[in-house]
Amino acid sequence: MGAFKAWVVEKTESGQSLSFRDFDDADLMDGDVTVRVTHSTLNYKDGLALTGRSPVVRRFPMIPGIDFAGTVESSGHSEYRAGDAVVLTGWGVGETHLGAYAQKARVKGDWLVPLPAGLSPEQAMAVGTAGYTAMLSLMALDAHGMTPSDGPALVTGASGGVGSVAVALLARAGWHVIASTGRAGEGDYLKGLGAAEILDRAELDKPGRPLGKERWAAAIDAVGSTTLANVLAMTKSDGAVAACGLAQGMDLPTSVAPFILRGVSLLGINSVTTPQKKRREAWARIARELDLGKLAAMTRTVGLEEVGTLGEDILAGHVRGRTVVTVG
Fold it and tell me: Dmax of the chain from CA atoms?
């Protein structure tokens, strides 16, 4: 037993506090695999947990961080041995189970996947939940029968983590990608990832008509609320929209018109409790299909000690692409 460094959220009378301190591994939660964490990442949900802006944390004290890559230190699980490289995303880690912004984690082995061949731990965390969610969205569009020959594909929140990876994946798959962003000056960045057109977020984030001009056959939406309503209203007949985020809000002020007059399908994406078979398929496709050069172009790296300053930045939309956290 011993201490390790971790970011810890504590409950206070006014909400919560965040500190970077020693944490004893005797206080780790139950699990059959203990992992020496080498890398983590920053997602929108991490920003909510770090700041307390939404009740993401439901157990105190909590080590936030919903993703990690690392090396198995000890295992009582039949599939993993000491020294194995593993990845974790989701399963309530960083919310109800002590999470990734620490030098050590103890989790259920059934939550892990082996580090995919072709990806380093740092690259896996450059992907993280955001990129994994983008791949699940692409898989949902594929399963629905959507192909690049059907027309353009829209990505909302394109400068963010999910959006950046979605643009790169869709472009690699042959789609004509329309990237929606509210960040002035991000056009060159998004075109470098494969976007063919840039759409100003202002065209989507205000209340619109139940049906608009048909502009795209498919979409990956990480924004929700009014933006998603407008995306649906402008989706072509028999098109499909994968909904995977709520940056603008959890509401959906739409009508049945896109569904019953154009046959548009709304595909929900749950990246937290994805079954193991589908989870491994997604990671295998990421390793095969994601351009690692483009992944590097959208990624910056910070140290674990810097995490405490990042929550407000990602919630304010000041974080572009992906952020890898190197754990010392």
Answer: 63
CATH topology of domain 129-268: Rossmann fold (3.40.50)
- pLDDT (tens digit, 9 = 90+) per residue, 22-49? 999 999 999 999 999 999 999 999 999 9
Residue 307, SS3 per DSSP: helix
List, as own/partner pairs, every contact residues 257-261 make where C-beta atoms lie below 8 angstroms and the sequence separation is at least 24, other chains included.
257/210, 257/211, 257/233, 258/210, 258/211, 258/232, 258/233, 259/232, 261/211
What are the Cα distances from residue 29, in Å, to 26, 61, 108? 8, 11, 10
Is this model's pTM higher than 0.70 or not? Answer: yes
| DSSP string computed for 136-175 | HHHHHHHHTT--GGG--EEESSTTSHHHHHHHHHHHHTT-
In CATH terms, the fold of domain 3-115+298-326 is Quinone Oxidoreductase; Chain A, domain 1 (3.90.180)
How many CB atoms sit inside 10 A of residue 328's CB?
9
**pLDDT tens, residue by residue, 283-320:** 999 999 999 999 999 999 999 999 999 999 999 988 99
